[in-house]
Specification:
Layout (H helix, E strand, L loop, with lengths): L17 E2 L9 E2 L1 H12 L14
Antiparallel strand pairs: 1-2
Length: 57
């Protein structure tokens, strides 16, 4: 059974997970809250939270 937790924050992925903007193919599913945070960081030209700092990676 696939993990239903967000690898970025450890919370639930929810029914409509987002795709992380950190990978070329956007194949990492994250919760919508983390997806929004990545989009805001990108729009503000802030560095993303590196996957090595995600609690579940």
């Amino acid at each position: 059974m696939p993990d239903t937790r967000c690898p970025r924050c450890g919370g639930p992925l929810g029914e409509r997970p987002a795709h992380s903007r950190l990978t070329t193919h956007r194949d990492i599913l994250i919760c919508t809250t983390c997806g929004t945070d990545e989009a805001v960081r990108q729009a503000q030209r802030q560095a993303p939270v590196p996957p090595g700092e995600w609690p579940l990676t």
